[in-house]
Write a structure and sequence with these properties.
The complex is a heterodimer. Chain A is of the alpha/beta class. Chain A is 23% helix and 22% strand. In chain A, helix 5 links the parallel strand 12 and strand 13. In chain A, helix 3 packs across helix 4 and helix 4 packs parallel to helix 9. The chains are: A alpha/beta, B alpha+beta.
């Protein structure tokens, strides 16, 4: 029989190690036995989570008269996995995979109930057992964060690791990245990296790799194949083209945006078709793909962090926007339609321009160009000093602004760099069939 | 024999983790293809059943339709557990006297046969304990769980399986009993009782496939066998009884194999070259198609693979099931009767080649893919070796003829790990109190109420309560129709309707039945004519009125009734005079045949008695 309770049983139960076997008799006299499991993040107070013999987890409210007794038995939960054989180093040739965290390198965290990034090479190989057999690969952990935490400073660090990887002889580099800000990083790297001798492929997953249906493995294997393609010398994103596991799209780093919060095919090239596709047989590429350079690759920094991205919305007070521009050297506006903001904003934009702050315009429509000539508002903004960035996505324009600020000291110099194509980011024309 | 039962009932709420309707459809508006691979649970072991399925390396094609959203396509995280479905499960827990858990944790049960796009089935334990009483015996309830139904398999071809997603996500209540059932007949009764309780909640789906039973069968000395997805309640007992017979046979064969010192050579021998001279049959096809034929040496197995006295189960079939599960059509073994494509003489030569004695047996595995044949041979060898141990624990599929077939190894507890995308649901006492205050009437109470208050005979009341028609019964009685007529229509006339071959299944709506009962009450046809009217409706009559006309049943009016009766009495006046009132019975049959249900039998009888009396009074004495 369980021992009679002494004091509040919850005090003991709450501090039991996970994996402890126990038998508990609840206040109705029902007896439960199982293993203590970490509670879900959103679990109720005084609730013990038990894994029963059947494998089910249940939550039991522990009342003051609950009785329990600890049982012998192996503590199974939470044991670390046996480390699989490590990847062979790829001294020459091969693909180097840089990991940054994100869903593609995350597992369910049974302590918090959420998904959590892993940085351990062995863990990653445990998720992607076929990697080692697909040719020479080397895994280099760089960051260990979900991508909402990645900053422009991280872009520079990553760019440095890419250059190092090519320096070690990699034929291509894959960056496993969280999908939330993968479009930003892809754009940032597109401007930072120059003279690339091979592909730099960003890849992510919309379903964590501890699920049998994860898109992580198929995306990663596709990315590794693209990284081996000797026709590519630029930064691209490889993700599912549609909901199926058998076709993937290759997006130019400056054209791509996460357009859905959860679908596998969330990433889309805007204003035109993707740079290519990859299926079971081949990698298909548009002729516009940038060819590899003879190298050596380098990081063409720095980035100047005194640039910002501001989305206009109806009711945005001009005073807020004015304050936002304080201390900045440049601002990308995501304006309405062809590139507009309310008339009350003209004055702060004029003043900022006069102070030497570069104000650039993109469209929050996320598809199509901005054009200052169609409406009076555009013409007014043009006169106020706004530079219109054609069909650049707001995120791409933001990354390009930071890079341009880092490479020109005068406002005119920044404007010139913003308008000059650097990484194939401008579409010169937008074919009709590209509009979905 | 010990039998435990798992009853799975679909609920008539929206889906368990999204707002899609719980409906089946034939419409497809999107398709996609996926692959699955096993993932490790929180204890980081890959479950045996999951690994087995993944080893097949299949491509899964999915059809998505109007009853689907991004959730079933695994393109959006699940929404929180459906509250209405949970209320139904909690109600069942209260009806069964089970202990509801304080906080419901949704789990992932790894299933990588493609029937779930996620690679797992979401399932949550809602309550444990409780009991159900059947025929004076008490059966413990082990667990009540709420889980999502799987996608519907709609086809398969080499390396691919196709599923429709409409069924995926429909809430299922799973009720598992302890192993207290002693016979197939009792299994059926317990399933019936649980089914009636489920229907008493009035929130369950009905129709073929909306309730399915799994049987857990173990015999003395055997192992637990799960027969999964029995849809036909009438076969439930047969599956249990035949499973018992199968396990007994396997144990008998085990004893004989052990006595003989039998053993299995695990390494197959390539006999493709040796059989190159065969010109027809499956073996020849594999040889010609540049495939491979592998032989397994089963030492001491001679005579034990084929038919055994007193049973139609056989070990050879168990081995063939393994080959089939590996993607082959089956196998050839040495206990099969010789046929022209593989003669006795030819077999002898193969025996010599394989160095087998008369006490030994062989199994041949042929396929055009060397790799698949190798995988199948390994599975067959493992199954043959398991025969020396007795009954391997496994999951078996029910076949329409009452037999079962190997489907996969028994899944273990490693299959369950937390579904972290779904928040836990606390169940406060107030919620249980609210549900307790409006518990539905129990089937036994409903049955006696129907008898007592509505005059429905006991047998029909039982059929209503334990069948599928109680809702419609109450609906139609509520519309003012006489309970007895409604009960007869739903339990006897409707199920007995003859549907013309080629016509779609006959599923009349409540409105149609309402119209039919109304027409009957208005005397547009007689109750004897009901089957004909139903037959015409089944054959496609657009309305009840039209069905009455097409069946030639427009009721005879009183004048016509009198004319027909008088004529028949006159025709048989000799008989009437001879047998007097006793002539009623033969004449009644004649009149009814002539009127063919166009007039109520009681009215016909009255009219006939009148006519006979009149004829006797009028005639010579």
């Amino acid at each position: 029989m369980p021992a009679p309770p002494e004091g509040d049983p919850w005090d003991t139960l709450r501090s039991l190690p996970f994996g402890q076997h126990l038998e508990i008799t609840d206040e109705r006299g029902v007896r439960w036995s199982g293993t203590v499991i970490p509670p879900h993040d959103l679990s109720s107070p005084r609730t013990l989570t038990l894994k029963l013999e059947t494998g089910y987890n249940v939550g039991l409210r522990v009342g003051p008269s609950a009785a329990f007794r600890l049982l012998e038995g192996p503590r199974t939960a939470g044991l670390p996995a046996a480390a699989p054989p490590g990847a062979r180093a790829a001294p020459h040739g091969g693909v180097e995979i840089l990991t940054t965290g994100g869903t593609i390198a995350s597992r369910v965290d049974y302590e918090t109930g959420g998904v959590r990034p892993v940085s351990d090479e062995a863990d990653i190989l445990a998720f992607y057992p076929d990697l080692a057999s697909s040719g020479e690969v080397r895994i280099t952990p760089v960051l260990d964060v979900l991508s909402e935490n990645i900053t422009p400073a991280d872009w520079i660090a990553l760019a440095g690791k890419v250059v190092e990887a090519f320096g070690r002889g990699a034929e291509g580099v894959v960056i496993a990245h969280g999908t939330d800000t993968m479009g930003f990083t892809a754009a940032g790297l597109s401007f930072l990296l120059t003279d690339l001798p091979g592909p730099v492929v960003l890849v992510g997953a919309q379903r964590s790799p501890d699920r049998p249906s994860s898109d992580g493995p198929s995306n990663l294997y596709a990315a590794v194949r693209v990284a081996r393609d000797r026709r590519i010398g630029e930064v691209v994103v490889v993700m599912h083209e549609g909901p199926s596991d058998d076709r993937f799209a290759i997006h130019r780093g400056t054209w791509v945006r996460k357009m859905h919060s959860s679908r596998r095919d969330a990433f889309e090239s805007r204003n035109g078709p993707p740079l290519g596709t990859i299926d079971a047989k081949d990698v298909h590429l548009l002729p516009t793909v940038r060819a590899p350079s003879a190298g050596p690759p380098r990081v063409d920094g720095p980035l100047d962090g005194r640039g910002a991205l501001l989305a206009f919305y109806p009711g945005l007070p001009a005073s807020r926007a004015r304050a936002f521009a304080e201390g900045m050297r440049g601002i990308v506006l995501a304006g309405t339609g062809l590139g507009h903001v309310a008339a009350e904003h003209f004055s702060w934009i004029r003043e900022a321009s006069a102070r030497g702050v570069v104000v650039a315009m993109t469209t929050q429509c996320l598809e199509g160009i901005v054009d200052p000539y169609v409406y009076a508002t555009g013409r007014d903004l043009l006169r106020a000093g706004v530079v219109y960035l054609d069909d650049l996505l707001p995120e791409t324009a933001y990354a390009k602004l930071l890079w341009s600020l880092g490479h020109a000291s005068t406002p005119d110099g920044v404007r010139e760099l913003l308008l000059r194509d650097r990484a194939g980011e401008f579409h010169r024309r937008r074919p009709m069939e590209a509009t979905p | 024999m010990k039998v435990g039962l798992e009853v799975h009932q679909q609920l008539a709420t929206s889906k368990l983790f999204c707002a899609c309707p719980s409906e089946l459809t034939e419409t497809t508006n999107a398709t996609f293809a996926r692959r699955l691979r096993p993932a490790s649970g929180e204890e980081r072991t890959v479950d045996a059943a999951a690994a087995f399925q993944a080893s097949r390396g299949l491509l899964y094609r999915y059809e998505s339709g109007p009853a689907n959203c991004l959730v079933e396509a695994d393109e959006e995280p699940p929404r929180p557990l459906n509250d209405q479905a949970l209320d139904v499960a909690l109600t069942m827990a209260l009806l069964l006297g089970a202990r509801v858990v304080d906080e419901i944790e949704t789990m992932r049960k790894i299933v990588v046969d493609g029937s779930n796009t996620t690679g797992f089935q979401r399932t949550a334990l809602v309550a444990v304990g409780g009991h159900v009483e059947v025929g004076g015996r008490r059966h413990e309830i082990l667990s009540i769980a709420l889980e999502e139904d799987a996608a519907r398999k709609v086809g398969s071809s080499a390396g691919e399986v196709a599923y429709r997603l409409d069924r995926l996500g429909i809430p299922l209540i799973e009720i598992a009993t302890g192993p207290s059932i002693a016979s197939g007949a009792e299994a059926r009764e317990v399933a019936q009782e649980i089914g009636a309780l489920l229907r008493a909640t009035r929130r369950v789906r009905r129709g073929i496939g909306t309730i399915r039973e799994d049987l857990n069968v173990s015999t003395e000395g055997g192992r637990r066998i799960e027969v999964k997805g029995v849809q036909e309640l009438r076969l439930l007992g047969e599956y249990a009884d035949r499973e018992e017979a199968r396990q007994k046979l396997l144990l008998r064969l085990r004893d004989e194999l052990v006595r003989r010192g039998a053993r299995v050579e695990p390494a197959p021998i390539d006999v493709t070259g040796e059989l190159a001279d065969l010109s027809q049959g499956p073996l020849a096809a594999a040889v010609r198609g540049r495939g491979v034929v592998l032989a397994l040496r089963l030492l001491g197995f001679a005579g034990l693979l084929g038919p055994q006295p007193g049973t139609d189960e056989r070990l050879g079939r168990e081995l063939a099931d393994q080959a089939r599960a590996a993607g082959l059509g089956g196998l050839v073994h040495s206990d099969e009767p010789p046929d022209p494509s593989f003669s006795e003489e030819r077999r002898k030569r193969l025996r010599v080649y394989l160095q087998l004695t008369a006490a030994d047996a062989f199994a041949l595995i042929a396929d055009h893919s060397r790799e698949r044949a190798g995988r199948a041979a390994a599975a067959v060898a493992a199954r043959a070796a398991a025969a020396l141990e007795g009954v391997p624990g496994e999951t078996r599929d029910p076949l329409p003829d009452g037999r079962t077939r190997f489907s996969r190894p028994l899944p273990g507890r490693d299959r369950l790990y937390p579904e972290t995308d779904v928040p836990p649901v606390p169940v406060p006492d107030e919620r249980l109190e609210r549900l307790r205050a409006r518990l539905p009437e129990r089937p036994s109470a409903t049955r006696s109420r129907l008898e007592r208050e509505q005059g429905v005979p006991a047998e029909l009341a039982g059929q209503l309560v334990y069948g599928n028609e109680l809702d419609r019964f109450e609906e139609l009685v509520g519309r003012g129709h006489p309970p007895l007529a409604v009960a007869r229509l739903l339990t006897q006339e409707l199920p007995g309707t003859v549907v013309p071959s080629g016509a779609p299944p006959f599923e009349p709506t409540v409105e149609t039945l309402d119209e039919l009962l109304g027409a009957l009450a208005r005397g547009q046809f007689s109750k004897e004519g009901t089957p004909k009217v139903l037959g015409q409706l089944a054959a496609g009559a657009p309305s009840v009125g039209e069905a009455v006309v097409r069946s030639g049943l427009a009721a005879a009016d009183s004048g016509e009734l009198a004319r027909v009766v008088d004529r028949i009495v006159q025709e048989q006046i000799g008989l009437v005079r001879e047998r007097r009132e006793a002539a009623f019975s033969p004449l009644m049959g004649d009149v009814m045949r002539e009127l063919r249900g166009r007039r109520d039998g009681r009215e016909v009888a009255d009219e006939l008695r009148r006519a006979i009396a009149k004829a006797l009074a009028d005639g010579p004495h």
